[in-house]
Amino acid sequence: MLHLLALTAFAQAVPASPDLPANAQSPQWSPDGSQLSWELNYHEKKILELYVGSPGTTTPARKVTPVTRGAPTVTSGFEVAGRQVVHEIAFSPPALKKFIYAASGSTQDYDLYLDGAGAIAPAPGADGGAAWSPDGKKVVFTSARTGQGDLYLLEVARLEAAPLKLTGDADSSELDAAWSPDSMKLVLVGHTNKGDNLFIIDNVDFPAPRPFTNWEHSQTRPSWSPDGTMIAFYSNHTDIRRVDLYVAPLVGTPTLVATDVIPNVSGPAWTPDGRHIVYVKHDDERFNPVYVAPVRQPSQAAPIPTDTVGNGDLSVVKRPDGKVWLAVAAMGRTEDKVRDYRRIYVMPLGTLP
Question: Which of 101, 272, 311, 318 is 20 to 30 Å apart from 93, CA to CA?
Answer without folding.
Answer: 311
